[in-house]
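Q: Got one fold?
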Amino acid sequence: QVQLVESGGGLVQAGESLRLSCAVSPAIFRTRVMAWYRQAPGKQREFVARISPIGTTVYADSSVKGRFTISRDTAKSTVYLQMNSLKPEDSAVYYCNIISGNEPLKTWGQGTQVTVSS
């Protein structure tokens, strides 16, 4: 059974930083592409970034590229999202997931809330 446990969210002011963590079942983490998504109130869940088992990264678009950094620690079976220069529009619930066939799994964790005040 896949386990995805996100943490690290919180309330910060614009311009500050947060690092999100997602602990994944060790048995599957090593060989899987991992990704972060976010969902703001009233909006659809959107892709933020992904990272391959060998560390190749892809970011959604210019709105996060340069400010967010995705990384992974195989020894800890954990994927991270370092978020710098946060903006109010980054406020959302952030989720991690495993990518399979270019799509996230249908099972999602509880997410972690990020709120950025102006």
Summary: The CA atoms of residues 98 and 105 lie 6 Å apart. The longest strand covers residues 92-100.
